[in-house]
Each structure stands twice: as structure tokens, then as C-alpha cells.
Automatic annotation (TrEMBL):
Involved in chemotaxis. Part of a chemotaxis signal transduction system that modulates chemotaxis in response to various stimuli. Catalyzes the demethylation of specific methylglutamate residues introduced into the chemoreceptors (methyl-accepting chemotaxis proteins or MCP) by CheR. Also mediates the irreversible deamidation of specific glutamine residues to glutamic acid. Belongs to the CheB family. It is found in: Cytoplasm. It is an enzyme of class 3 (hydrolase). It comes from Singulisphaera acidiphila (strain ATCC BAA-1392 / DSM 18658 / VKM B-2454 / MOB10). NCBIfam families: PRK00742.1. This is Protein-glutamate methylesterase/protein-glutamine glutaminase. Keywords: Chemotaxis, Cytoplasm, Hydrolase, Phosphoprotein. One of its GO terms (biological process) is chemotaxis. InterPro entries: CheB-like, CheB_C, CheY-like_superfamily, Sig_transdc_resp-reg_Me-estase, Sig_transdc_resp-reg_receiver. The active site is at residues 182, 208, 306. Contains a C-terminal catalytic domain, and an N-terminal region which modulates catalytic activity. GO terms for molecular function: phosphorelay response regulator activity; protein-glutamate methylesterase activity; protein-glutamine glutaminase activity. The gene is cheB. The lineage of its organism: Bacteria, Pseudomonadati, Planctomycetota, Planctomycetia, Isosphaerales.
Length: 370
């Protein structure tokens, strides 16, 4: 891992190796990435050239294409994780390959841009740089704090639903669990769900992921023999039931709404909240309002602060609130901010979260441990 410390408070640029077989795309990616002075780009035309460069110097991050003629990106990723485990951002439109890459250890996946659509390219470039910063944080690089751009306003959950108190007179009969997770979340969610029994309370998950990828993610989880619960991509007005896990689709906000004795998921459009759609903040706020003490909120690995305020609202409404501990997070940003705000009643390793939720569901006092 290269040294990033310089004299004073500045940091040397982080080397980003771009592996793509198109010379035109490589140059365009270089221009986009180096617009952020924290990054410096190294170019490789294919995985074989990347391997040769790795023998000379190990970069901080890798931005990897999937479809290349001499060796595809997934094959290279598999070899890389055995020999030089590095933070990798994968660029692909193929959902199944994206989920496979995240399972193999890629930190982030971003959909390929339409280079002909200049109107959307600025947004894509912003998202790429955010993914690279996430990967840098996963690689334990010291990074400057992100600064919100005047052209990219940071919306709060108020843009989707206003804050109102929980009404205890008409609470749901069944308990529910809501989970928020981002960078490093695919492997974390797999582990979390594998620890729940088939009759666990209904679970709703926001995993920051591009549109069209969440369906493949849900399908992969549902076919995992280690996971006893049913896993589905949520549809509008989908009931939240014991034994079922609902993944909120990419590019839509997911809200929990009370319906008689139970709850359901409502999918809505709207601006990104905390720079994300779906947003953990929106899910948690809606759960605080709909279920209060009948809900448990879990915030796990991820960069930024999405969900920290919503988890605090859940705790204030009487919910059980849990944050994944630093030692088991790929990126501790989201749990750290929730803990800093006093939102987490419990801070615990990943492999003890499900047990804590089930103890709460059984009515036991889980206490607190770190």
C-alpha cells in the first residue's frame, strides 16, 4: 500500500489504476478522475498490462471494466484478491456480474455511462468520484471530507416525509427490523441474514446499489442455502411479514407504512436524501413513525452519515437500535456517525447482530456491549 502522508496536513495523491481495453474510455476516465486532485491515474489496457504494472508499484485503488478480450474483469478480480487484495470499483451494466464482483470483494460497483448523453455525464462523473472515495476509505486512506456542491444540494428526509412523532395508540402487532448498509454491504448482509432463523421478524433493507442491481442481489440472497428467510426485491405496497426479507429497489425510496395490525413497504420517487436513493434516513424515519417500539433498526458498514439521524429518531420513538462495530466494518462511517449522535443503544460485531435482534424480539434486555 503506498504512503499517502506528506508533510503538514496534506496528502499525496492516491494512485487509481484504470483497467479498460478502450483507449478512448481510458483517457476520458483519466480526465474525470484527475479532476479530483486527491487522485492520480495509472492506465492499463487489460489485466495482463495491469499485472505487469502491479509488479512495479501497487496502486491505492483499481477501477475495473468487466468485458475485455484477453481476460475478463471477474477473472482478474479473483486473481487480484488472492495476490494483491486492493479496493476495487467495478464498472458494468450486468447485474449478475456486479453482485458476483461484490461477493468476491469489490468495494463498489457503478453502472457504465452513456458517453453520448452529455446531460447525464456530469451526474455519472460525480457518482464515480464518490465511489472512488468510498473505495479509498475502505482502503484506510486518509481522505478529505466530501464537500457538497452548490449544484448537488444535499436533501434531508424532509424532502420525502416530514418528521412526526410515533402514535402508540395504533401500533402494529408484529415486530419488524430495518437495516441500512452501504460500502462493503453485500458480504455483510449475507452474513447477517445467514444468522436469522426462518421465522424471524420481517426485515427491510436499504443497500446503496445502482438501479437494476438490487433485483439480482435479492435473487442471489434468496438462493443462498445459508439463508433461511425468503428474500425478495420489494414491490410497492409489499407486506412486511415474518420470515421475509425485502430489499428496496435501487433508485427509489422505501418507506414503512402502518396498515392495520401490520406494516407494508411504500416505494416513492423523489430527490436523493443524504446523497442516496434509496436512503437509509428515509427508511428509518418512516419506521420510527410507523412502528416505534415495535421496530429494531440496524446500521452497518458504509461511508457517510446516511441513516444516523433516522436511527436517532427510531431510538427516540422506543425502537431497539443497533450499530455494527468498527472492527467488523469495511467502512465505519455510517455506524460511527450514528454512535456519535447517540442513536445506537447497542454497538456489536456483525456476527452478534442477529442474536441481539432475536433477543429483543423475544422481549429480553440485550443491555449494551462494544
Amino acid at each position: 500500500m503506498p504512503t499517502t502522508e506528506c508533510s503538514g496536513t496534506t496528502h499525496a495523491p492516491i494512485d487509481v489504476m484504470v483497467v479498460d481495453d478502450s483507449a478512448v474510455v481510458r483517457q476520458r476516465l483519466k480526465a474525470i478522475i484527475e479532476a479530483d486532485a486527491r487522485f492520480r491515474v495509472i492506465l492499463a489496457a487489460d489485466p495482463y498490462e495491469a499485472v505487469a504494472l502491479l509488479r512495479k508499484s501497487v496502486p491505492g485503488l483499481i477501477l475495473l471494466d468487466v468485458e475485455m478480450p484477453r481476460m475478463d474483469g471477474l477473472t482478474f478480480l479473483r486473481k487480484l484478491m488472492r495476490q494483491h487484495p486492493l479496493p476495487v470499483v467495478l464498472c458494468t451494466d450486468q447485474a449478475e456480474r456486479a453482485v458476483t464482483a461484490l461477493e468476491m470483494g469489490a468495494v463498489e460497483v457503478i453502472a457504465k455511462p452513456d458517453w453520448r448523453d452529455a446531460g447525464r455525464l456530469d451526474v455519472w462523473s460525480h457518482n464515480l468520484l464518490e465511489s472512488l472515495r468510498n473505495a479509498a476509505r475502505a482502503g484506510r486512506f486518509p481522505m478529505l471530507e466530501d464537500r457538497a456542491s452548490p449544484t448537488d444540494p444535499r436533501h434531508t428526509a424532509d424532502a420525502i416525509l416530514l418528521k412526526v412523532p410515533y402514535n402508540p395508540r395504533t401500533g402494529p402487532a408484529e415486530r419488524i427490523v430495518v437495516v441500512g448498509v452501504s460500502t462493503g454491504g453485500v458480504q455483510a448482509v449475507q452474513r447477517l441474514l445467514s444468522d436469522f432463523p426462518a421465522d424471524a421478524p420481517g426485515i427491510v433493507i436499504v443497500q446503496h446499489m445502482p438501479p437494476d442491481f438490487t433485483g439480482a442481489f435479492a435473487s442471489r440472497l434468496n438462493n443462498d442455502p445459508k439463508i433461511a428467510m425468503e428474500v425478495l426485491e420489494a414491490r410497492h405496497h409489499e407486506p412486511i411479514r415474518p420470515g421475509r426479507v425485502l430489499i428496496i429497489p435501487g433508485d427509489q425510496h422505501g418507506l414503512v407504512r402502518r396498515t392495520g395490525i401490520g406494516c407494508r413497504v411504500e416505494l416513492v420517487d423523489g430527490p436523493p436524501v443524504c446523497r442516496h436513493r434509496p436512503s437509509v434516513e428515509v427508511l428509518f424515519r418512516s419506521t420510527a413513525q410507523a412502528a416505534g417500539p415495535h421496530a429494531s433498526g440496524v446500521i452497518m458498514t458504509g461511508m457517510g452519515d446516511d441513516g444516523a439521524g433516522g436511527l436517532l429518531e427510531m431510538r427516540e420513538a422506543g425502537s431497539m437500535t443497533i450499530a455494527q462495530n468498527e472492527a467488523t466494518c469495511i467502512v465505519f462511517g455510517m455506524p460511527r456517525e450514528a454512535i456519535r449522535r447517540g442513536a445506537a443503544k447497542l454497538v456489536t460485531p456483525l456476527d452478534r447482530i442477529a442474536a441481539a435482534v432475536m433477543a429483543w424480539n423475544a422481549g429480553a434486555d440485550t443491555g449494551s456491549w462494544h
